[in-house]
Design goal:
Layout lengths: L9 H8 L5 H12 L8 E3 L9 H6 E8 L4 E7 L7 H15 L12 E6 L11 E6 L23 E7 L13 H11 L13 H10 L6 H19 L3
């Protein structure tokens, strides 16, 4: 019998990562993904209505739209099934919409907008690897110069950074998990079959996660919504493409 909710359901994803009073769970996961390259101090939850899609997509894809402490956008997404034709174009489209929704111009971008996709499948274009990172830089238009700029040549500014985690390629056992990201991915991949959340005694955030994700903590109304979310996901995954 399951002790914890399935994080791949819409209800489970939103309960774990989408509650303002438990935002440090989201912050800790994101910092585990970024490995201090892009440090997150705080997040503000934003309206997710900018991330649209067909009914079929929204049943198997769940997302959060946040802004970082400096106001730049961040999107976290779980994709349970590979049904998007323009896979990379979709990510860039919604990141662009998120930037526009913040009212930013290029000159006002204080840091790089980020996208993290947790994938329940693999794609050939992402390679046979657990983690895939990609950035986007603007096209460089070469203009005639009267004089050469002073100082060393600087690399073009990265406009977006995208990270995909292909969960089928994550096969570490509990004892093999060393990094924070290892521990997070082990928990997320196995949560619905775990009897307890590992590392909860060593890390407060995992103890908080255990409380938030415990099935017995759900009210009767919440349990009904969770069960409906499980049924919807199972039906969507079983449909013929």
């Amino acid at each position: 019998m399951s002790m914890f909710i399935n994080p791949n359901t819409k209800f489970g994803f939103n309960r774990i990562f989408g509650q303002e009073e438990h935002r440090r769970i989201l912050i800790d996961f994101l910092n585990a993904v970024f490995e201090n390259k892009y440090h997150i101090e705080n997040v503000d939850y934003q309206d997710t209505s900018i991330i649209t899609g067909s009914d079929r997509e929204l049943k198997v894809i769940h997302n959060l739209f946040c802004s970082r402490d400096d106001g730049t956008p961040l999107i976290l997404e779980v994709q349970n099934r590979d049904i998007i034709e323009a896979f990379s174009d979709r990510v860039l489209y919604f990141l662009s919409k998120a930037i526009v929704a913040q009212g930013d111009t290029l000159d006002n971008w204080k840091s790089i907008p980020l996208f993290v996709g947790i994938l329940g499948f693999t794609r050939e274009d992402l390679g046979k690897q657990f983690r895939y990172d990609a950035g986007m830089t603007p096209h460089i238009i070469r203009m005639p110069q009267v004089s050469k700029p002073k100082g060393p040549d600087a690399p073009p500014k990265e406009l977006f950074h995208i990270t995909f985690l292909q969960m089928p390629y994550f096969n570490k056992s509990e004892c093999e998990c060393e990094t924070s990201l290892d521990k997070w991915c082990f928990i997320l991949k196995n949560m619905s079959s775990l009897k307890q959340i590992p590392w909860a005694e060593q890390h407060d955030v995992f103890a908080e996660l255990a409380q938030v994700a415990m099935l017995d903590a759900l009210t009767h109304e919440e349990r009904s919504r969770y069960d409906a979310s499980c049924e919807e996901l199972a039906h969507s995954l079983s449909e013929t493409v």
